[in-house]
């Protein structure tokens, strides 16, 4: 079973080429240049192996990585459903055959991509499991390493999480800085005025979300037509439950989703989900995920 995700292949090719240039610099692989020509050009076999338990991610981009970084190396086998698989130390994830020289030069860069993506998928999966039997879903944020957002968001999906907006271009998210200084009693009017301009945008947003900091602001936003999601920033558990009650009493369940946001940790997820919100935004799954230890060794 594959994850339904649309990659921008041209963007990834540029990213992989930048990664190659970063490693090669102006002179190339100095260490491999010390090898004699016969050793450098010999055909070798390599194996990608998990060194710790986690959720592997990266099989979908592995052919492109090899094509960009080591075109004389052939990806001969990949573990079935690798990007949705939980792996254990020693599990073989993929096999390669081809130029020893090219693989020596590409090994670290390949692992950098795969270990990072697998770390994001692993951490996301931990948060998803912590949600338990509630209806809440884990969402990522735009807190990603520049250039890696597409890969981070794919990794989140592989971990069982959901993607928030991809960038500034595909959805509307009115945050506190957009409406700074607006008195609470004028908040509904100010947001409605902003939303009246949606028809002038160059493309229709995927959704409209508005942030609030307290229940008084939240009550004002419930009056606004056209909001799909209300972001509840740093609300206490009690205020989150109250917000769910207020939304439901206004007859907006199923029409307006509530998103808890603000420093969510793994220990906080279960009680956050129990408040009844539909969405929990977690920046940590992309900005703080530790890499999953993988090995790429000659066999």
Average pLDDT taken over every residue: 96
What's the CATH first level of the largest domain?
Alpha Beta
- H/E order of the elements? HHEEHEEEHEHEHEHEHEHEHE
Strand content: 15-25%
The residue ranges in which pLDDT falls below 50 over 5 or more consecutive positions are: none
Q: How many beta-strand segments? A: 12
In the sheet with the most strands, the strands line up as 6-11-10-9-8-7
Question: In words, what does this structure look like?
Answer:
By secondary structure, the protein is an alpha/beta fold. It folds into two domains: about 10-120 and about 290-299, Quinolinate phosphoribosyl transferase, N-terminal domain (Aldehyde Oxidoreductase, domain 3, Alpha-Beta Complex); about 130-285, Aldolase class I (TIM Barrel). About 35% of the residues lie in helices and about 20% in strands. The protein contains ten helices and twelve strands. The protein has helices at about 10-25, 35-40, 60-70, 100-130, 150-160, 185-195, 215-220, 235-250, 265-275, 285; strands spanning about 45-50, 55, 75-80, 85, 90-100, 135-140, 170-175, 210, 230-235, 255-260, 280, 295-299. Strands 6-11-10-9-8-7 form a six-stranded parallel sheet, with helices on one face. The longest helix is centred in the middle third of the chain and has 31 residues, at about 100-130. It is elongated and about 75 Å long. The protein starts with 8 loop residues before the first helix and ends with a strand. The relative contact order is 0.15. The mean pLDDT is about 95.
